[in-house]
Design a protein that fits this description.
This protein has helices at residues 9-18, 26-34, 47-52, 54-64, 71-81, 92-96, 111-125. By secondary structure, it is mainly α. α4 (54-64) crosses α5 (71-81).
């Protein structure tokens, strides 16, 4: 697929739910990685895990990479990667950052849009063992 400018949020949502976006189906993408969750060469960490347990997640990544970190180094990574740490204006990361709030999508979606996403999540992810936290 090519990257196109959506006509509206509603048209983008319809394309996204049908997998008609530049990288294809989000659900196929996520499930492709999820199927590797038990592979010892792969570490699957969700954004929500990082937000809830950042220090534990950093330690888990360091262990996975066989790069032990001291508590001070873990704290430095947590502080540096936090959404509360300002990014320099004009940098690529500054333009990509949003609020960093789990569940913030609720402030953008209408009730019918939310219901459409919930329905598609159930259709595509139910029974896979992959679950997301929305709070």
């Amino acid at each position: 697929n090519y990257l196109k400018t959506p006509e509206s949020w509603d048209s983008f949502q319809a394309d996204f739910l049908d997998g008609n976006v530049s990288r294809g189906s989000y659900y196929d993408h996520v499930l492709g990685w999820w199927q590797m969750k038990d592979d010892p060469h792969f570490l699957f960490i969700k954004y929500e895990d990082l937000k809830k347990r950042m220090a534990a997640s950093v330690k888990k990544m360091a262990t996975f990479l066989d790069k032990p970190l001291s508590d001070a180094e873990v704290e430095s990574v947590v502080r540096t990667c936090s959404f509360e740490t300002p990014s320099k204006p004009g940098t690529k990361i500054a333009s990509l950052k949003r609020k960093g709030v789990v569940g913030d999508w609720k402030t953008l979606f209408t009730a019918p849009q939310s219901e459409a996403f919930d329905k598609r999540f159930r259709e595509k992810l139910e029974g896979t063992g992959l679950e997301f936290e929305y709070e």
